């Protein structure tokens, strides 16, 4: 675990249970506890990064792996062909509530654009 008070670090460390759908040495993905679509999965780096604003060049590989995992998960969840949204909220105005980087994968229904 990287940040003792971080919810997603605790999930990553196995201290808080989650419905895990994908894991490798750098990335973990689990179902959102309050899903906003039939498929709603959060993909996180195991290493703590608080927000998009904190991403540095040396994090690029880990951040890229979130999208590689998203592609695997979308196939796994059978939403790859019909389409889905991969989105990250940054800070308060965008509605970020957990300050550990996470990519939302939303699918299984039509998604409006632009988002509210
Ligand atoms: P955000 O608002 O972009 O920071 O997204 C945080 C997401 O984490 C929300 O969609 C929450 O429903 C979700 N969430 C909060 N706690 C948990 C948890 N224990 N397990 C799974 N998802 C969670």
Describe this protein's structure.
- The structure is a single chain.
- By secondary structure, this protein is an alpha+beta fold.
- The protein contains 2 helices and 5 strands; from the N terminus they run αβββαββ.
- The protein has helices at residues 7-12, 60-76; strands spanning 20-23, 27-31, 39-45, 84-87, 103-107.
- A 5-stranded antiparallel beta sheet has the order 1-2-3-5-4, covered by helices on one side.
- Strand 1 (20-23) and strand 2 (27-31) form a beta hairpin.
- The protein binds adenosine monophosphate.
CATH homologous superfamily identity: HIT-like
- Cα gyration radius (Å): 14 Å
CATH architectural type: 2-Layer Sandwich
Number of DSSP E strands: 5
Structural class: alpha+beta
What's the CATH class, please? Alpha Beta
What is the overall silhouette?
A: globular
Q: Approximately how much beta-strand content do the residues carry?
A: 15-25%
How is the topology of this model organized?
Elements (H helix, E strand, L loop, with lengths): L6 H6 L7 E4 L3 E5 L7 E7 L14 H17 L7 E4 L15 E5 L9
Antiparallel strand pairs: 1-2, 2-3, 3-5, 4-5
């Amino acid at each position: 675990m990287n940040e003792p008070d971080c919810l997603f670090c605790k999930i990553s460390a196995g201290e808080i249970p989650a419905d895990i759908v994908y894991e490798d040495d750098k990335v973990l993905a689990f179902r959102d506890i309050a899903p906003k679509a039939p498929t709603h999965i959060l993909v996180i780096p195991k290493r703590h990064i608080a927000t998009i604003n904190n991403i540095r060049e040396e994090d690029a590989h880990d951040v890229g792996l979130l999208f590689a995992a998203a592609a695997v998960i979308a196939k796994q969840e059978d939403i790859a062909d019909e389409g889905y949204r991969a989105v990250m909220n940054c800070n308060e105005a965008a509605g970020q509530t957990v300050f550990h980087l996470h990519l939302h994968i939303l699918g299984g229904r039509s998604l409006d654009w632009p988002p509210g």
